[in-house]
Design brief:
Blueprint: H1 2-15, H2 31-34, E1 45-55, E2 63-72, E3 75-85, H3 87-106, E4 120-127, E5 133-139, E6 147-153, E7 159-166, E8 174-186, E9 189-201, E10 205-218, E11 221-222
Antiparallel strand pairs: 1-2, 1-10, 2-3, 4-5, 5-6, 6-7, 7-8, 8-9, 9-10, 10-11
């Protein structure tokens, strides 16, 4: 059973990686027609990232990790500042998310997951129940970086969230991997502020990974305390580096 839980959490690692660019390139059709509010591209940031992996059936494999993350001159880097919980999950999931993002961005593959015509077909999706505008997203290829679902915009045409299922299941073991990526505007830049990934794993149950971003600078500008928010931060902070609860 332990091996199956490790597989379950490991599958979440790839699904939680988020592209650098949060904002569609509005210079190209058909996005110009659908995303009416232009934003400055995200070129630099420094943010404290809080991560939490959990499952519905047991707390044995819960894990937390806090890390400083930085994008500068097109390169991504991170520094882990605290972690606790399951050694296995911290190693194979939480650290793996950061390692995968580092390899993706620094290897020049970040654009493969962005909201561009190269990756998606876009179409009008009407309005959500709260009146928010909806743009349907149809991936142009099967890729775990892409989401088959929709983008939700506010009344100013600004991206609020992307939600749906992964265009490609990471493994035979998964029956469904759903993703919600939330965005907010800091200054003139739209940035990701939270990612919630849930995977239904065959014979195991549901595993979840949440990631919250607390920005301290964006595009070289310090972020005021009033602009910083982590609406879906993990329930408990990572605290100091702790011992394993894997039962080894």
């Amino acid at each position: 059973m332990r091996a199956k839980w490790v597989i379950a959490f490991t599958l979440l690692a790839g699904a939680a990686v988020i592209p650098v660019a949060a904002t569609p390139d509005v210079s190209e059709n058909p996005i110009t027609r659908l995303f009416s509010h232009a934003e400055q591209p995200l070129r630099q940031y420094r943010a404290l990232r809080r991560m939490h992996a959990s499952s519905e059936k047991t707390t044995k494999y819960d894990a937390w990790l806090d890390a400083w993350t930085e994008l500068k001159d097109g390169r991504f880097s991170y520094q882990i500042v605290s972690e606790r919980g399951s050694d296995t999950v911290r190693s194979k999931v939480l650290r793996a998310v950061l390692e995968r993002e580092e390899a993706l961005i620094n290897g020049g593959d970040g654009p493969k997951g962005e909201l561009t015509p190269a990756n998606y077909d876009f179409s009008e999706g009407g309005h959500d129940t709260d009146g928010s505008r909806v743009v349907q997203l149809k991936p142009r290829r099967n890729d775990i970086l892409l989401v088959d679902g929709r983008a939700v915009l506010n009344d100013r045409g600004e991206l609020v969230r992307v939600e749906g299922k992964l265009a490609k299941n990471p493994s035979f073991w998964t029956s469904l991997v759903s993703v919600i990526r939330r965005y907010a505007r800091i200054g003139d830049v739209r940035v990701p502020i939270a990612v919630e990934t849930t995977a239904k794993i065959k014979f195991v149950g549901t595993a979840q990974l949440t990631v919250a971003y607390d920005y301290h600078s964006v595009n070289g500008r310090p972020v005021a305390l009033s602009e910083r928010s982590s609406p879906t931060a993990p329930a408990r902070s990572a605290g100091q580096s702790g011992s394993s609860d894997d039962g080894k």
